[in-house]
Amino acid sequence: MRSHARKQRKSVATAALVLMLLLSACGGQQASSGSTTAAGTLAAQGVTAQGGELSFALATSPDTLDPHRSGLAVSVRVIRTIHDSLVVQLPDHTIKPWLATEWEISEDGLSYTFKLREDVKFHDGTPFNAEAVKYNFDRILDPATKASNAAALLQPYRSSEVLDEYTVKLNLATPSRAFLGNLSQALLGIVSPAAAQKYGDQLGQHPVGTGPFKFVKWEENAGIQVERNPDYKWAPELVTNQGAPYLDGIDFRIVPEEATRIGSVQSKQVLAAETVPPQHILTLEKDPNFQLLQTNTVGLPYTLFFNKDREPWNELKARQAVQLAVDVDTIVKTLYLGTYERAWSPLTPGTFGYDASLEQSIKPDIPKANQLLDELGWVRGEDGIRTKDGKKLTLRYVDGTPNREKRNDIAVMIQQQLKQIGIAVEVEITKDIRTVVYTNGDYDLYGNSQVNSDPNALYSFYHSYDPKGQASLSRLNDPDVDQWLEQGRVEKDDSKRAELYKQVQHYIIDHAIILPIYVFPYTVAASNSVQGVLFDSLGYPLFNDVSLQK
After folding, report:
1. What's the burial of 356, exposed, middle or buried (CB within 10 Å: 0-12/13-18/19+)?
2. 209-213, 287-291, 323-327, 467-471: lowest mean pLDDT where?
3. Cα(114)–Cα(180) distance, integer angstroms
4. Which one of 3.10.105.10, 3.90.870.30, 3.40.50.300, 3.40.190.10 gives the CATH number of domain 299-519?
5. Residue 5 contacts residue 13 (beta carbons within 8 Å)
6. Are 474 and 308 in contact, with CB atoms under 8 Å apart?
7. Dihedrals φ, ψ of 483, to 5°?
8. Neighbours of 518 (CB within 10 A)
9. Measuring CA to CA, which residue among 35, 142, 130 is closest to residue 86?
10. CA 122 to CA 229: how far, in whole Å?
11. What is the pLDDT of residue 285?
């Protein structure tokens, strides 16, 4: 199986751009309408402005700019400007060249041999080659790196062999259909081996990659600056500008407070800001001075997971009662004012294998929910809360702080809705999710989401777990689901693979393992002078084509 880099590169890149724009529009991308601006006139004439600095407000601070150690989506916004990947995934799920020009997959699926570009250098001047690729992936495996999400994405990688200066062979422990797509993700971006050895644990404060922008500085809780890489000429097909960026640089400013962040765009203190709150989306849509760019992320939607290890949520009827009593439509419409889509499945639309037949499959049914709890022997007390064997029917709902995407408000609404059927919801908002949820498992309901390019992401959430290892959030343990997930990892026939994941999705909803809540739309508010912002297949912004029109 081969893929080649230079076949009709220009035409394919143009087609990819058109496809990206169409998909962004389908996902709700909107630009303000109104009188023709100078920016619009220049764009119509095909003139691209050179230079200038884009100020871009981030909603939170990155944890690190070391892609192998980061665990936050906000970090990827910056990491992607600095680091490239071996391959790129297009919106139609196809994999195309990037730092690798072509590759072969062995018949048994256990090895991937990559031919690499020979004209690439890291920002520190050291060459990109096969040794650098081997160093990166071995570094992720090294426990001393303390790799976060990158280690999970790299599975089931085992080792690398340098065949020559620009040919590297990656060996896997087991076949994986997700592996190639995972290599496209920013958290498996390639770092400079020389910089990693020089800075050690501090590489995240001094990142060095091969990307279109070079790191300049990071002022803690204030901002991060990157500057144009003048030598860049190896962009992927997701963008049309294959060379150095048009911008001189990007000033990422960290502005957690929602009103301040969006207000800074409206007052022109910054040119663009991410994660626009719903109420501001409605305002900006009507303002001809600004544009609103939006795309839905793919992977796992924001999902509330039952802990099946805890009673009574280990019983199907108890979980189904909650499923029937929680009015997700009302929650999403009330909190997000029609700007977020409701989720129906463990996967988001746009993810390979998504089963649209699950949409509209669950409707609130309070009488049925009450009936199920009655059948389990839970009897209402004088205070309206059900009891059984002297114990009150209590659901422990854990969420984190700060109130990201109004998730704490979801907890409050569910608390009110479940009171109708006699369930007392105890809400704990904590800063220490790692200890409460992942170490102690002290929750009945907990919400999480994951941006991912492949349905194999379901594996770590729903496959039976090793009692000696990290438990999954759902604690699901079912041999049929295990078989489907295991087969989905290796199935070569896409239609059969999609069917396997549809079976997984149906089982999870039919057995009320989760409550899917919303699909997160990544939104950017920008001045009309900002042209050329695109999103990659996961919903992250790309700045290669961005220019500032006067």
Report:
1. exposed
2. 467-471
3. 11
4. 3.10.105.10
5. no
6. yes
7. -65, -45
8. 24
9. 130
10. 10
11. 87
d(CA 500, CA 269): 50
CA atoms in the 13 A half-sphere facing the CB of 152: 15
Instruction: Pull the structure tokens for residue 32.
Output: 């303000």
Q: In CATH terms, is domain 9-296+522-548 a member of 3.40.190.10?
A: yes
Confidence check: pLDDT of 35 > 60: no
State residue 258 phi and psi, 5-degree precision.
-55, -50
For 169-213, the pLDDT digits (tens) are 999 999 999 999 999 999 999 999 999 999 999 999 999 999 999
CA 74 to chain centre: 10
- Phi/psi class of residue 390: alpha, beta or left (left: φ > 0; alpha: ψ in -120 to 50)? left
What distance in Å separates the CA atoms of residue 43 and residue 36, rounded to the nearest whole number?
11
Q: How many residues does the chain have?
A: 550
Residues 6 or more apart from 480 whose CB is under 8 A from it?
503, 507
User: What are the pLDDT digits (tens) for 493-530?
Assistant: 999 999 999 999 999 999 999 999 999 999 999 999 99
Average pLDDT (385-393) is 95
Beta-bridge partners for 493: none
Provide the pLDDT for residue 47.
60
pLDDT tens-digit map of 459-485? 989 999 877 777 899 999 999 999 999
